[in-house]
């Protein structure tokens, strides 16, 4: 059984105002939908790397 956003936040000691619960539930549903099924993605294919090259980020 999946917990609601309100229950998850309450478990962490966060009590949002009642008028914000619907907006939080909506945003959570959107996040879950966008996340999709990441369990099926190969980890080797999902790696992202960022390199910082000092002095290399300016435009000439």
Radius of gyration, taken over Cα atoms and rounded to an integer in Å: 19 Å
**Structural class based on helices, strands and sheet pairing:** mainly alpha
- How far apart the termini lie comes to 56 Å
Question: Count of DSSP E strands?
Answer: 0
What is the helix/strand order?
Answer: HHH
Q: Label the overall shape.
A: elongated
**Main β sheet profile:** none
Q: Please state roughly what percent of the residues sit in beta strands, choosing from under 5%, 5-15%, 15-25%, 25-35%, 35-45% or over 45%.
A: under 5%
Query: What is the helical fraction, as a range of percent?
Result: 40-55%
* Multimerization status: single chain
Uncertain spans, ≥5 residues at pLDDT below 50? none
Arithmetic mean of pLDDT: 81
Contiguous helical run count: 3
Structural summary, described in words:
Helices cover 48% and strands 0% of the residues. With 60 residues, the chain is mainly α. The protein is elongated and about 50 Å long.
SSE map:
Layout: H1 5-11, H2 18-35, H3 43-46
Task: Name the descriptors.
single chain; 60 residues; mainly alpha
Q: In short, what is this structure?
A:
The chain is mainly alpha-helical. Helices cover 48% and strands 0% of the residues.
